[in-house]
Amino acid sequence: MFSDIYKIWEIASRHAWGWRGKLVSGTDNTDDSFTGGSASAERPEVESTQHTAATGVDIVTKHHLQETSSTKEAYKNYIKDVINQRQT
């Protein structure tokens, strides 16, 4: 997430960072010519092109970030463990 492509600034006395992203949408078109393959002679009617569409904030899509799922209680326990490890 920290890249020189995006402007990042500090917030609240160096305890947090801020950045501004844009909502983007794009497609990733892949076919056999990209990988050096050719269409099969046995099934020439099959379309071998794969289309993947992605819409989201550019920072998230460029860095392939994924949403995590945890409960508030699990997150609290994780933070407590991290703090305890740093203190020892």
Automatic annotation (TrEMBL):
PROSITE patterns: TCTP_3. This is Translationally-controlled tumor protein. It comes from the Eukaryota. Residues 26-38 have a biased composition (Polar residues). Pfam families: TCTP (PF00838). InterPro entries: Mss4-like_sf, Mss4/transl-control_tumour, TCTP, Translational_control_tumour_p. Involved in calcium binding and microtubule stabilization. Acts as a negative regulator of TSC22D1-mediated apoptosis, via interaction with and destabilization of TSC22D1 protein. Signal peptide: none annotated. GO terms for cellular component: cytoplasm. Residues 24-49 are annotated as: Disordered. GO terms for molecular function: calcium ion binding. Residues 1-88 form the TCTP domain. Belongs to the TCTP family. Homodimer. Interacts with STEAP3. Interacts with TSC22D1; interaction results in the destabilization of TSC22D1 protein. Transmembrane segments: none annotated.
